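Many introductory courses stop at the sequence. We go one step further.
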Amino acid sequence: MQANDEKPIRALIAAMSEAFAKLDAHAFSIVFHEDADFTNVWGMTAHGRKAIEEFHRPLLEGDGSGPIPSFKHAELKVMDTRIRFLRPDVASVDATWTQTGAVQNGHDMGVRKGLLMLIATKQGDDWGIAVMHNMDLPVTK
């Protein structure tokens, strides 16, 4: 059963990446359960799918001239995804990522690297993200 469940979990990460590339905050939020929690790299949080959508909208649509970063022209690549099933309906997922092209305070943020740590749960036949934490990792040259 778990091997069959890896595919839809990987599809959540792919759908999130695709929504990010399309600058679609609504599509980004759809991979989360209705009551999900999201924490960004600075420890800021959003609770619930609608709040997660609204949290990401300025990041995907803004220009980065101020303190809110803009990912409008950024390229995000998920490098590696590791899945560990804690129960048949609960999985811990770590996905490493890199990003270029982000802008904050009018300046390019350079190459970024990070880790998405999330708990995916199965509700009925559907997998979704229940909790996600994002963190920056050191960029090594």
